[in-house]
Amino acid sequence: MPGVDFNVLRAEISMKEVLNQLEFESTTRLGSQLHGPCPVHGSTSSKSRSFSVNLVKGRYYCHKCESQGNQLELWAAVHKLSFYDAAVDLCRALGREIPRVTRW
């Protein structure tokens, strides 16, 4: 199985792109900080603010389920995939080439 260059993926795919793919709709926004229902544990309340994401830092945190991480970790958590499988799946969802490791 060929390796994925995760550093390239994190640099090329923004948190905003991942949130768009997940159809995340924030309930509040203050600058680059968004709050809303958590896509990881599946908040159903349209007023929920348990999920917090910083678009500049590319990090998220849910105050209810305590899931946290970067955009790739978010995709993996929402779809219950391994990190490798999530990276491949996200590239396919965005119609992008999978950046491969060129050396070991």
Characterise the protein shown here.
The protein is an alpha+beta fold. It has a single domain (6-94), classed as Zinc finger, CHC2-typedomain (DNA Primase, Chain A). The chain contains 4 helices and 5 strands. The protein has helices spanning 6-12, 15-21, 71-79, 83-94; strands at residues 28-30, 33-36, 51-54, 59-62, 68-69. The longest helix has 12 residues, at 83-94. The model has no long low-confidence stretch (mean pLDDT 92).
Record the SSE blueprint.
Layout: H1 6-12, H2 15-21, E1 28-30, E2 33-36, E3 51-54, E4 59-62, E5 68-69, H3 71-79, H4 83-94
Antiparallel strand pairs: 1-2, 2-3, 3-4, 4-5
Helix pairs in contact: 2-3, 3-4
Jot down its keywords.
104 residues, alpha+beta, DNA Primase, Chain A, 4 helices, 5 strands
H/E element sequence: HHEEEEEHH
- The percent of residues in helical segments reads 25-40%
What general form does the structure show?
A: elongated
Low-confidence stretches: none
Could you give the distance between the termini? 13 Å
Oligomer: single chain
Mean pLDDT: 92
Q: Number of folding domains? A: 1
How many β-strands, per DSSP? Answer: 5
At the fold tier of CATH, the topology name is: DNA Primase, Chain A
Task: Give a quick rundown of the structure.
The protein has 104 residues and is an alpha+beta fold. The chain has helices spanning 6-12, 15-21, 71-79, 83-94; strands spanning 28-30, 33-36, 51-54, 59-62, 68-69. It is elongated, with a radius of gyration of 14 Å.
